[in-house]
Amino acid sequence: MERVEACTAGSSPGALEPEEPGGLPWFHDQVVPAGSSSSRVIVHVDLDCFYAQVEMISHPELKGKPLGVQQKYLVVTCNYEARELGVKKLMNVRDAKEKCPQLVLVNGEDLTRYREISYKVTELLEEFSPVVERLGFDENFVDLTEMVEKRLEQLQSDEPSALTVSGHVYGNQPINLHDILHIRLLIGSQIAAEMREAMYNQLGLTGCAGVASNKLLAKLVSGIFKPNQQTLLLPESSQDLIHSLNHIKEMPGIGYKTTKRLEALGISSVRDLQTFSSKILEKELGISVAQRIQKLSFGEDNSPVTPSGPPQSFSEEDSFKKCSSEVEAKNKIEELLASLLNRVCQDGRKPHTIRLIIRRYSSEKHYSRESRQCAIPSHIIQKLGIGNYDVMTPMVDVLMKLFRNMVNVKMPFHLTLLSVCFCNLKALNTAKKGTIDYYLTPSLSTTSRSGKHSFKMKDIHMED
DNA sequence: TGGGGTTAT
DNA sequence: ATAACCC
């Protein structure tokens, strides 16, 4: 495996002078602007073709071969050997095989292993700093600001080699060792390198990292040098980075819908968005979206790194060409539910809400899903920790009521997706008599709770 | 387009 | 419950 690449700072060598009389480096008394949201150090860590990496770890004999991970008729991701032969992410299996007949395909519809390893990565990163936000299964943001501050305090003035950037610097911008912001980001790059080393040594995974002063810029810069490399963005280069985007649709936070609405306004480049009238943009998109995305266009993003913690929901879905009978639907729902019950059992917490999601067939119209949810009856919740066969039948009954609430089974129907989701997860009953928890836990306190908990009535009631 | 996730309204 | 966003 290649080592993490290193190059020295572009400023004068051994540039730790001038020293303070006390022997401390000059920056020890530099004041970070109070409130400090303006000078954070954020890293974005992005695993290389994650599913393919996991499959190569599980099946080492596949290493070196062009490998694609298949879900239904799509190659959802592939390794770099396959990419060199023309396979792209989300490519049709037939197109991929045509481009690359030697392509090896593995089925990746069961996400269990990916999910497990994904959380191992997040946990590893949390050892560096607890403030880790997941984005999908293969990306994480970490706020390094505090960690960098600690390292700065411990930095000795007689170790000039300590101030060496790790990895690339965007645009080859020289580092100014007299600029405290540069120094802080440089230390962030060293921590990022340590994170990638730990991921490789402990989990066998490679990935990219981007270090910058906010999430947007960290994410954008992490993709500059692509497999298994890292890039640091200095503040003076942030305009170059955002203007390197060819279209606003490449801006994280501007999705499909907003892109279409912006294009209708004649906005297609980042600069178009920067210079467009704020007032008109607010009228068109609403003040919230307008202000947020216009700030993004300047590379400004004050959104915090929000620790993800344990998942807010568990879901399993299956898509298919056609499901048109209630019996068929019930069988599929049972499969989804069985997997979910295992997962929920492992997690330890208990879901208090269950949701059923469907997608109806519609020719050529963009996909839209419908859902119905309800509270899980408390007698079912209580049995959740242990044997899942007790809960299977009553849960299926609940789900089929939700199903019939959405789908008129007396009329012909055509579904292309079914999904079951457990959400509103609550920690196990550690509630003790006399505590707030006790009175807020419906299963424990039986007196005077119908009023307090009437919010549950927002969930639909089924009367059949 | 898969099989997931999140937050805001 | 849906709509938007992310991967």
TrEMBL record:
What GO biological process, any one, is recorded here? translesion synthesis
Catalysed reaction(s) here are: DNA(n) + a 2'-deoxyribonucleoside 5'-triphosphate = DNA(n+1) + diphosphate
Record keyword Nucleus present:
yes
Q: Which cofactor does it need?
A: Mn(2+); Mg(2+)
Question: Which is a Gene Ontology cellular component entry for this protein?
Answer: nuclear speck
- Which keywords accompany this UniProt record? DNA damage, DNA repair, DNA replication, DNA synthesis, DNA-binding, DNA-directed DNA polymerase, Magnesium, Manganese, Metal-binding, Mutator protein, Nucleotidyltransferase, Nucleus, Schiff base, Transferase, Ubl conjugation
Q: What is its EC number?
A: 2.7.7.7
Subunit: Interacts with POLH. Interacts with REV1. Interacts with ubiquitin.
Explain the purpose of this protein: Error-prone DNA polymerase specifically involved in DNA repair. Plays an important role in translesion synthesis, where the normal high-fidelity DNA polymerases cannot proceed and DNA synthesis stalls. Favors Hoogsteen base-pairing in the active site. Inserts the correct base with high-fidelity opposite an adenosine template. Exhibits low fidelity and efficiency opposite a thymidine template, where it will preferentially insert guanosine. May play a role in hypermutation of immunoglobulin genes. Forms a Schiff base with 5'-deoxyribose phosphate at abasic sites, but may not have lyase activity.
What name is this protein filed under? DNA polymerase iota
Taxonomic source organism = Monodon monoceros (Narwhal)
Q: Which gene encodes it?
A: POLI
Q: Which residues of the full protein are shown?
A: 1 to 464 of 728
